[in-house]
Amino acid sequence: MQKLLYHATTQKKAKLYRNSGAIHAPVRGFTTQQAAMAWAMKVGRTVILKFDAGQAHKLPDHHNEFGEAWWNDGDVKEWQCVFSAHGDA
């Protein structure tokens, strides 16, 4: 199932992803950017990345009023930064 997801992370991890060329599985994400941002605020993350999930599975928890939480069973090698509190994640 192909699904667009938004992943909340830290600036440090975003740089590690870029340097390694992948976000290693499992990669959790939300169905909307707003849901990922709400989660990021709750857990202190400052970067939101968007990616196409190739093998998405719905998580039993982590959902919020803005979207559902899913995980991707496979490394993510292409993503786009859609928000960074630092400007250069």
Order of helices and strands: EHEHEEEE
The rough form would be described as globular
Number of strands: 6
Uncertain segments of ≥5 residues (pLDDT<50)?
Answer: none
In percent terms, what proportion of residues is strand?
25-35%
Largest sheet: 3 strands, antiparallel
Order of strands in the sheet with most strands: 1-3-6
Question: What is the average per-residue confidence, as pLDDT, rounded to a whole number?
Answer: 94
- What's the gyration radius in Å? 12 Å
Q: What proportion of the residues is helical, as a percent range? A: 10-25%
Supply the number of helical segments: 2
| Backbone structural class | alpha+beta
Question: N-to-C terminal Cα separation, in Å?
Answer: 28 Å
Description of the molecule:
By secondary structure, the chain is an alpha+beta fold. The chain is 24% helix and 34% strand. It has a three-stranded antiparallel sheet. The longest helix is centred in the middle third of the chain and has 11 residues. It is globular and about 30 Å long. The mean pLDDT is 94.
